[in-house]
Amino acid sequence: MSDLPPAADPHDAEWSYETAAVQSGIPRGLGQTIGFPIHAAAAFQFDTLEQAQTEFQTNAGLSYARIQNPTVRALESRITTLEGGESTVALASGQAATLTAILSVCRAGDHVVSASSLFGGTTGMLSNILPLMGISATLVDNTPGAIRAAMQENTRLVWAEMISNPAGDVADITAFADIAHQGGALLAIDNTCGGVGYLCRPLDHGADIVAQSLTKWAGGHGSVMGGSVTVGTRHDLTRNPIYTEGGENSVLTVRGDGALAWRQRWFGASQLGMTLAPHSAFLIAQGLETLALRMSRECETALALAQWLQAHPSVGQVSYPGLEDHPFHTQAQKYLSGFGAVLSFEVPDPAAFLSRLRVLRVAPNLGDVRTLVVHPWTTTHGRVPEAARRAAGVTPQTIRMSVGVEALVDLQADIAVGLSNRPTV
Ligand SMILES: *Cc1c(COP(=O)(O)O)cnc(C)c1O
């Protein structure tokens, strides 16, 4: 059998983020590659019938690349280290990660409570796709009181984003975890805007599952798609019938402590086939190596831009959790080591603003090294009902910006041109 990297070297967990991001998962030794080798493979060999039989029963090693691949596995172990978790399954997109996280604890008849300040794709999945499978969801304000009031007997999962976009709500993880656990449910946090544990590690604050898009800050260069689901070590599944009923066949009895992670790989990768390609895993692992550098710079620039925009006479409401007037500023200080790279602001004429830009680019991604802007009203939130759009902090004037690594002065100069009365071309 080909070598499968370890799930996560416990030694790596002692490193600080910047060190773990470049060192974890890379073996030392004569002739070892410095980066992750790409294993371009669909299947792996066995020597004996017994090996193959065991592998098909446990899915613990290498057999078929829909289930595991050494390159993907190396990325998974790096993410596990960076998020401070027990194990990770990497998948083809953030959407794949969201679906896998939900299906790992919910089945027909079950219920999800979610904060309503959400990525549009998550709102769509909770409102349109999961009901087709008999899983219902209640979307409420991003506060402990609203989450508690929405809990039902059949609630198996509470969901929130670490930092929502574009509003910049910050999840009160500790409070949400207590509410979920009291109700026998788990707490999942979408940590996409938290940058793979760089701004916050939700598992440290009581979350049970971290789901995220790796397309954004992890990839970091607008060149690859991916997602991941990481589980922590402390989750209690004994009140979820999926894991307990069925006696001898219960997932918990058969899979023990690793039951949740096993089900996520089984559903997301093995059965639904939302597998991450090894070339993508390589690009994401390489992106992670500079995430800390990029994101610390981006947070610094985003704060400077937010303050500058707030003082600009042509700009309306500026929303950024780093600003003292932001409703989640205190919570952001409590949970985050930086205020994130996404901000939003209102301009008088969004169409003219966007058409004048020469540095900022109009594109829907987040976390790119280049600064990207969109008009959420007509694009990312275009399908969301108007009241919900406004509740999410989106007005017809709002521009969302994901700040890149360019020089602050060039971004300011470009925005100034965008806001000027210069004729558009
Ligand atoms: C982009 C995004 C997703 C979905 O990720 P994809 O990789 O685009 O599928 C999920 N959650 C958040 C917060 C996102 O920004």
From TrEMBL:
<keyword id="KW-0032">Aminotransferase</keyword>
<dbReference type="Pfam" id="PF01053">
    <property type="entry name" value="Cys_Met_Meta_PP"/>
</dbReference>
<dbReference type="InterPro" id="IPR000277">
    <property type="entry name" value="Cys/Met-Metab_PyrdxlP-dep_enz"/>
</dbReference>
<keyword id="KW-0808">Transferase</keyword>
<keyword id="KW-0663">Pyridoxal phosphate</keyword>
<dbReference type="GO" id="GO:0008483">
    <property type="term" value="F:transaminase activity"/>
</dbReference>
<dbReference type="InterPro" id="IPR006235">
    <property type="entry name" value="OAc-hSer/O-AcSer_sulfhydrylase"/>
</dbReference>
<comment type="similarity">
    <text>Belongs to the trans-sulfuration enzymes family.</text>
</comment>
<protein>
    <submittedName>
        <fullName>Aminotransferase class V-fold PLP-dependent enzyme</fullName>
    </submittedName>
</protein>
<dbReference type="InterPro" id="IPR015424">
    <property type="entry name" value="PyrdxlP-dep_Trfase"/>
</dbReference>
<dbReference type="InterPro" id="IPR015422">
    <property type="entry name" value="PyrdxlP-dep_Trfase_small"/>
</dbReference>
<dbReference type="InterPro" id="IPR015421">
    <property type="entry name" value="PyrdxlP-dep_Trfase_major"/>
</dbReference>
